[in-house]
């Protein structure tokens, strides 16, 4: 019985660790408009009315596949992800650290300072999920309603024991860590001179 409980405890520890720590190896390629699902194109043109400069990509990380529209809207960079059937999945908006509420910023920095001897934030985004209507209202009316889920996605370099690594962290709306993954760069992401 003691061995069974020990084994179950070890399994639980491994399962919990894998929930908060994984590896990210994302592959992204530009795609022509003709390859983008019609439903995604219609949603984007209705929501981002008048926007003409949109770059489309197909992205996979080995588990999920999405079409992604990247564009600038009202002075901010937006990334809009769609499922292969054209249904909207999420909207990410690039932000700066100073755009965060003070409590959220303090909690994020407390986490990073506790985990790393040094860190540098490379990219930070607000990550919105919700119904297509709620996401549409976010863009067309600027409404962040209660039906939207807000999280933060941060790419950063963290140093542990003198070794720096690239990480991606997902944090909830108040700045608590949900998940982090090490980011594996493909050979095309790194140029040697």
Model description:
This protein has 193 residues and is α+β, with helices and mostly antiparallel strands. It contains four helices and ten strands, in the order αββαββββαβαβββ. The chain has a single domain, classed as Nuclear Transport Factor 2, Chain: A (Roll), CATH 3.10.450. Strands 1-10-9-8-7-6-5-4-3-2 form a ten-stranded mixed β-sheet. Strand 4 and strand 5 form a beta hairpin. The N terminus and C terminus are likely disordered.
How big is the Rg? Answer: 19 Å
- Please estimate the helix content: 25-40%
Beta strand count: 10
Provide a count of the helices: 4
H/E element sequence: HEEHEEEEHEHEEE
Task: Enter the CATH topology name.
Answer: Nuclear Transport Factor 2, Chain: A
Strand residue content: 35-45%
Helix and strand composition category = alpha+beta
If strands are numbered along the chain, what order do they take across the biggest sheet?
1-10-9-8-7-6-5-4-3-2
Unreliable parts: 2-20, 187-193
- Major sheet: 10 strands, mixed
CATH C-level name: Alpha Beta
Query: What gross morphology would you assign?
Result: globular
**Overall tally of domains:** 1
Give the rounded overall mean pLDDT.
86
């Amino acid at each position: 019985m003691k061995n069974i409980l020990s084994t179950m405890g070890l399994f639980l520890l491994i399962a919990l660790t894998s929930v908060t720590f994984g590896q990210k190896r994302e592959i992204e390629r530009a795609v022509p408009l003709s390859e983008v699902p019609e439903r995604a194109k219609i949603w984007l043109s209705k929501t981002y009315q008048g926007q003409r400069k949109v770059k489309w990509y197909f992205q996979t990380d080995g588990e999920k596949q999405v079409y992604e529209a990247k564009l600038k809207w009202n002075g901010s960079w937006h990334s809009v992800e769609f499922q292969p059937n054209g249904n909207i999945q999420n909207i990410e908006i690039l932000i700066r650290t100073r755009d965060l509420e003070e409590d959220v910023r303090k909690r994020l920095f407390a986490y990073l300072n506790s985990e790393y001897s040094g860190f540098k934030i490379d990219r930070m985004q607000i990550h919105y999920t919700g119904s297509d209507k709620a996401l549409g209202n976010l863009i067309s009316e600027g409404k962040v309603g209660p039906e939207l889920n807000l999280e933060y996605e941060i790419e950063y370099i963290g140093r542990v024991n003198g070794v720096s690594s690239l990480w991606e962290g997902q944090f909830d709306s108040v700045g608590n860590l949900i998940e982090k993954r090490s980011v594996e760069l493909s050979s095309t992401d790194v140029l040697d001179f």
